[in-house]
Each structure stands twice: as structure tokens, then as C-alpha cells.
């Protein structure tokens, strides 16, 4: 939509380049605001002067279009609007779905059950359980699968910790930080470590364990429940969980690619 000044310029019969020039003025203002010492930051470049030049006839040097790379900077503002809208939907959904965030919340009585689901997706029971199964395995196939699951769980902790440390997104304001056994990066919420683990472990189990159909369905339901409980408990924003779920799937693919073969096992145990 043209700015009022553009319309005025058009009404006074200014030449076409003015329209483009006015559009770029907004951009130049932005550049000037971010680079106060830049050569462009001059009084003659102020909107007031620009406006004057419209009525008095701008010089050809003032009418020159900005370099293309500057014009391209307009695109991020559209991307910015899209991102802000997505973020607004994310925050709104997060707030709406945080029904077990507090004891007094609308589903507050379900909070203890949600916390049990939270523990079922926690790193400690999974790592401890896998170590126990690895110790108890009496077949090379069992040892191979358990070792790779352990590898996957440790890699997950590292990758999630790295992303949380880079993104540093705070947990939702309605979250009560009463989580069992956390690392320091767990004060951040993007991505959800429970969601990455649930997605990765469920894919791992469906691929590497021989399970009856009802159990396979239960595994999938468990992964979905763990993800939903993160938002319902108020621990995470919806986008943290959605990205975590996606990241968990990617991590599983990485584990398949890096799969430790039975031949690497004796080498590892000898170290
Ligand atoms: C053996 C070993 C190093 C275990 C550490 C397990 C541990 C403390 C994992 C942290 C799990 C956790 C609380 C993740 C946070 O999940 P979010 O879904 O809240 O991001």
C-alpha cells in the first residue's frame, strides 16, 4: 500500500521515479537509524528534505535508485510480519493449551498424571534403563541395538543442549520450574528435549524391536502424549515441541546413518 506521501506526490503530478524514491526513503531511514555514522546519515537525507525536493524538483542524483542489494532488504519485513504472526499464534495456543500449568488451572487436577508422563520421557530413566538392558543382553543383536539406543540418547542430550544454548528462548511465563533433574540449559525451552527424545526413541523402537501391533500403537500414543504434556504443563511453547518432534526424527535418521556395527563394539569395550 503506498504511503500518504507517495499519494501526494502522485497527485501533484511528480514523475514515476518519485514513487520508488519514497518507498526507498523508508528503507534509508531504517539504515540511517541502525548506522548513525554512515555517509547516508545527513540532514539533506532527512524526510523533510526529501519532501521539499518533491515539490521543488529533485536532482537526478537524489532520484537514483538504491543498489539492488538494499532493495532486497525490503523482503525481510514481509518475512518479519509472517514470523510475528506465527509467533503470536504460537503464544496464544501455548497459553490456551497450558491447562495443567498450575494446580488451580482448569485441568489442574490432571497435573500429577502429566508429571508422570513427563518422567516417562525424561533422560534419566531412559539412559538408566538402556544401560541395564545393555548389561543384561545375552545376544550380539541385543547388545548392538541397546548400544545404539544409548548412543542416540546421549547424542540427543548433547544436540538439544547445544540448540538450547544457542537459541536461549525462555520457558513460558506460566511455567513452574519444578522439573525433576535438569541441566542448566534446561532453563531454556527451544527445542523440547522430551519431544526430541519421544520422537527419536519411538521411531527407534518401532524400527528395531519386534512388537505386536497394539504395542506399536501404544508407543506412538506415548510419544504424542509426552509432546502434548509439555505444553499442557506449561513447560513449553507449541513451537518448541513441534520443532523438537521434527528434530527427534532427524536425530533418528542420523543414528541410522552413524549406526555402530557389532564390529565396533569389541573395540569400544576394550578402550
Ligand atoms: C547420565 C546422564 C548424563 C543423565 C542426564 C539426564 C538428564 C538430567 C536429562 C535432562 C532431561 C531434561 C529435564 C530435559 C528437559 O526437557 P524439556 O522437554 O523440558 O526441554
UniProtKB/TrEMBL annotation:
It comes from Hymenochirus boettgeri. This is Polyisoprenoid diphosphate/phosphate phosphohydrolase PLPP6. PANTHER family: POLYISOPRENOID DIPHOSPHATE_PHOSPHATE PHOSPHOHYDROLASE PLPP6 (PTHR14969:SF18), SPHINGOSINE-1-PHOSPHATE PHOSPHOHYDROLASE (PTHR14969). Belongs to the PA-phosphatase related phosphoesterase family. Its main location: endoplasmic reticulum. GO terms for cellular component: endoplasmic reticulum membrane; nuclear inner membrane. The chain crosses the membrane at residues 114-135, 147-167, 209-232, 252-269. Residues 27-69 are annotated as: Disordered. Its EC number is 3.6.1.68. It is a multi-pass membrane protein. Residues 145-259 form the Phosphatidic acid phosphatase type 2/haloperoxidase domain. It is found in: Endoplasmic reticulum membrane; Nucleus inner membrane. GO terms for biological process: lipid metabolic process. GO terms for molecular function: sphingosine-1-phosphate phosphatase activity. Keywords: Endoplasmic reticulum, Hydrolase, Lipid metabolism, Membrane, Nucleus, Transmembrane, Transmembrane helix. It catalyses: 1,2-dihexadecanoyl-sn-glycero-3-phosphate + H2O = 1,2-dihexadecanoyl-sn-glycerol + phosphate; (2E)-geranyl diphosphate + H2O = (2E)-geranyl phosphate + phosphate + H(+); (2E,6E)-farnesyl diphosphate + H2O = (2E,6E)-farnesyl phosphate + phosphate + H(+); (2E)-geranyl phosphate + H2O = (2E)-geraniol + phosphate.
Amino acid at each position: 500500500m503506498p504511503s500518504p506521501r507517495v499519494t501526494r506526490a502522485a497527485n501533484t503530478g511528480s514523475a514515476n521515479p518519485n514513487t520508488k524514491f519514497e518507498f526507498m526513503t523508508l528503507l534509508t531511514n531504517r539504515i540511517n537509524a541502525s548506522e548513525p555514522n554512515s555517509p547516508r546519515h545527513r540532514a539533506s537525507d532527512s524526510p523533510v528534505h526529501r519532501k521539499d525536493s518533491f515539490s521543488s524538483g529533485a536532482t537526478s542524483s537524489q532520484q537514483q535508485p538504491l543498489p539492488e542489494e538494499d532493495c532486497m532488504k525490503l523482503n525481510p519485513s514481509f518475512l518479519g510480519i509472517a514470523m510475528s504472526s506465527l509467533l503470536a499464534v504460537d503464544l496464544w495456543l501455548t497459553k490456551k493449551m497450558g491447562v495443567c500449568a498450575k494446580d488451580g488451572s482448569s485441568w489442574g487436577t490432571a497435573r500429577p498424571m502429566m508429571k508422570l508422563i513427563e518422567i516417562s520421557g525424561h533422560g534419566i530413566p531412559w539412559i538408566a534403563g538402556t544401560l541395564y538392558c545393555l548389561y543384561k543382553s545375552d545376544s550380539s543383536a541385543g547388545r548392538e541395538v541397546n548400544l545404539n539406543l544409548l548412543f542416540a540418547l546421549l547424542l540427543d542430550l548433547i544436540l538439544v543442549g547445544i540448540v538450547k544454548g544457542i537459541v536461549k528462548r525462555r520457558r513460558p511465563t506460566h511455567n513452574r520450574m519444578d522439573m525433576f533433574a535438569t541441566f542448566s540449559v534446561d532453563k531454556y525451552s527451544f527445542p523440547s528435549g522430551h519431544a526430541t527424545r519421544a520422537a527419536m526413541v519411538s521411531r527407534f523402537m518401532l524400527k528395531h524391536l519386534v512388537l505386536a501391533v497394539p504395542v506399536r500403537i501404544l508407543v506412538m500414543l506415548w510419544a504424542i502424549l509426552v509432546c502434548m504434556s509439555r505444553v499442557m504443563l506449561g513447560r513449553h511453547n507449541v513451537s518448541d515441541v513441534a520443532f523438537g518432534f521434527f528434530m527427534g526424527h532427524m536425530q533418528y535418521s542420523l543414528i541410522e546413518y552413524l549406526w555402530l556395527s557389532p564390529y565396533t563394539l569389541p573395540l569400544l569395550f576394550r578402550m
